[in-house]
Protein 1
Amino acid sequence: MKIIIIGLGLIGGSIAKTLSSSKDYEIFAFDSDQNSIRNALDNQSIQGSLHSLDDLGNSKYEDSLVIISTPPGVTADILRSLNFLFNTSVTITDTTSTKTSLNKILQEFNFPENFLFSHPVAGSHLSGEKNSATDLFNRKSTILSYHGSAASQHVDRVTSLWDALGSKVTILDADLHDQIFAYSSHLPHVAAYALLNTLKGLEQDKLSDFSGGGLGEFLRLVSSSPEMWADIFTMNEKNIAIAIDDLIKSLDLLKDKIGKDPNSLQTFLGELKDFKESNY
Amino acid sequence: MKIIIIGLGLIGGSIAKTLSSSKDYEIFAFDSDQNSIRNALDNQSIQGSLHSLDDLGNSKYEDSLVIISTPPGVTADILRSLNFLFNTSVTITDTTSTKTSLNKILQEFNFPENFLFSHPVAGSHLSGEKNSATDLFNRKSTILSYHGSAASQHVDRVTSLWDALGSKVTILDADLHDQIFAYSSHLPHVAAYALLNTLKGLEQDKLSDFSGGGLGEFLRLVSSSPEMWADIFTMNEKNIAIAIDDLIKSLDLLKDKIGKDPNSLQTFLGELKDFKESNY
């Protein structure tokens, strides 16, 4: 099967690198950054590159699988520009971590039967093709979201892709996906940025000698790409705003409990620890 | 030199274990948990144990160094009960991570010249003598805080202790210590507990498949002892309340920015990342 990767960054590059060891796939890529393309050609993780997305209309790419793995903010434009492929034999998926705003574009096109959302829950604070790796998706979750209109051959093709990459596939409604990730992934990042903003406001600007490790683990979340996180926060704005309000309520609750009975505070913290140990 | 460790947990046990390899120290311990005492005797990390803190009045312990390394909430009581040693040839220090409330006790006793605060910025989410280790303090910071009344031989003795444990010693005013740690250490823990409380309130109670690692790093902070954290939060209540309010302001600021221009959001996140990389 032919695979066309649009956006050869950490995710796209890792898909190419992992699948290139199998004879089952012929892999092509499109990226405006020619260094990434050249690097992937040199490593033989791709067999060729596209000059333009219009090339995908060529009969050579019939029945292929197109993966959009660009930064989230660009994905909407790419998706829209690929509308000439909607309801053809080509299968299209993405790798974006927010779905609601992309889903609106699909709705404009009456939910093409050959598009499915993919969200590989894998990544690194490092980005770019040069940091891609063959084990990025192995034993990690990938969430698929698709409309009832999705045709089974396209569902099977995308499912097989993530199986081949070693990923554990879960299916989730697109809206529920964004609600869940607002809490499980976006909110921890918001909290880390907010904590850093708080520290930045202090007179003492270097507190790492005074943190005992906990601070470092927290702040590592801020090492990821600001472009990617600005896109994710913007695309999932409504759910994240609700999650931030919930977090503020919990902070106020803790502040209140800290001022009261130490024993009931200890019980409260102990219950949270128990909850963590049963669920995380 | 004789060292007497009151409270043979992770910190006290690690002090004993590290110093026991040197001929310069004779190490005794007091702990209500006889298993910890027996374990440390078996490992030869201590040479003997005390039956009661009153034993410290014995001339045998003249010129010794007493280290209180009990849970923070117990330290205040121990400190008060050791008042018969104040202004003697015995040196006394602690290992607690909040100082203001203990400082009030010292004030009642007109700041004895033989007491200094120590805060080894080292730890683990594991606790107890059984998890103690010889490398716990190596290359870690230890903060000393002491009143102007502290006599130089006691300052030297405590400084030498942390030097021998491989720690990097910094001196900080007790009140400033608590203000700084409210942000650098206590606030990240408050945020982790608050995030967990937020997740606990959701219908979906297991989000670990949907987090990509960031959540796990965050929540690891909640693995520490609830007893210790309830004590720390309570003892540093006022500073932590201010820090929580600051964090809430930063969360509100971020929420506001997420609803506005994506480019300025990206710039804001990029500046925070730059600040982190220069300072942490």
Protein 2
Amino acid sequence: MCRVNDTETTGHNHPADRLLQAVERCAAPVCVGLDPVLERLPMSVRAEVDLPESNVEAISRFSIEVIEAIAAHIPVVKFQSACYERFGSAGIRVLHHAMDKAASLGMQVILDAKRGDIGLTVEHYAASSRLGGSDWTTVSPYLGFNPLRPFLESGSGAFVLVRTSNPDSDAVQSLMLADGRTVAQAMADQLAQAGEGGIGASGYSHLGAVVGATKGADHVALRARMPQQLFLVPGYGAQGAGLDDVLECFNADGRGAIVTSSRGVIYAGGVDDPNWAEAVADAAAAFAEDFGQAVGLRS
Amino acid sequence: MCRVNDTETTGHNHPADRLLQAVERCAAPVCVGLDPVLERLPMSVRAEVDLPESNVEAISRFSIEVIEAIAAHIPVVKFQSACYERFGSAGIRVLHHAMDKAASLGMQVILDAKRGDIGLTVEHYAASSRLGGSDWTTVSPYLGFNPLRPFLESGSGAFVLVRTSNPDSDAVQSLMLADGRTVAQAMADQLAQAGEGGIGASGYSHLGAVVGATKGADHVALRARMPQQLFLVPGYGAQGAGLDDVLECFNADGRGAIVTSSRGVIYAGGVDDPNWAEAVADAAAAFAEDFGQAVGLRS
């Protein structure tokens, strides 16, 4: 169980410090991903009619109930922007409401939006992300690292896509450079350098990295190249990474990574269970327990 | 001036065919970028009070008036999603309204969102893009090309970021691979291959490429690697690419590229001119005339 939020946890204006303090508070380096799709919602929250406004209302109910169910166990929640954007302006309203709910319960909020652009445009995306109340945003490195700076203003952080867990990412991220590095390793080196100017009291940077643990030993080499980056680690469970793989994303002191799980937690109740939220809470508690123990935050 | 829309132009369900037919109809291979920011709006459309709801209303008025001013000259309009997203759900409503307006006046619509993700998430982004009525979406290649497929469904197309016009992009896109290609060239080769399955009657693919003309001769080499890709070409004017640079993005037959201009057109009126929309129309007409002549669509 997470300790009740105290004044200590609200004093930090550095995103890595806040994130790690939330991890300490819940004794679990984990994040639940909220990427709700209509077809998988429990019947008890689904709309009786298939209309856009009733469907987005069902997404809203589900999001809020999941957040309430997991808040006692989980320090960080990640919102998949696309799942809300597909409902247009109503979806954005629901997204921001849910982000606000998570923050009000003391959780750190990641907006998984994978944004990336140049110049002034990035300032608009960063403003949009903060409008919803995010602490961190996921971003793409393809246009370079300098353009990402607006995402780091006002005490915000950004997780840069470095090595993603999907099969198709190899075609880009595993390309071999003339200097012997892969593209992902080159991104890691640039990221480590770009993040040097923003190290918090915790020793970690406001620029983190998305690194999946589904690609052989790639994540081990990337961990060595980015000692001061927090890793956001997808791929546990549904996507095939095991506990041992994921643990290699942490530094030797048991810190430095946040493991995400989505479907394994938010759909734990099944579609027909009217008490589905209890199953979600149980799954969240077990997920937190497993990784809290594995990294030594729980005995 | 564009010809009035006829039945011929509405019969195509392939995005490249639609785009090129729009170019023919207006005798100009050009696109105007709508990326409105409050500080640059003409005083006559600005709100009297600085409140979010009045500001987004000003963005809406400006967007609609620009679209009406340029519709007689310009075949394609590109909406910068971030400029609307920063206003939250109200901004999305304004964006979709403006996209709908452009489509109703016969223009092809590009949503410049630079999205990229994996699996089901891409389907949500693609659904979101179509919800607004886009013909094309800009997307990022960093997670691989297979995940982009949902953006190509229902007669839609996608412009993939290959070589962007910003200075910082060199650090990623100019990295040299062991096989002698740059990262951008490798992306181009993969893009050309991924686009082979979706060639329209025009000979162009539903997968296009964003290629700036501000990087020496990079765009010339990329043109040769992607003969069947439509190029969306930023960087003309404000970002430093000249007419001759940009013309090298076209194929030898004068087709294959769409040149974008934003600030040079949408802010042509200046902030104090109550008749600013006339200046916008004049700038759009001149932009269309310059490139219509340059590629031989006008005498």
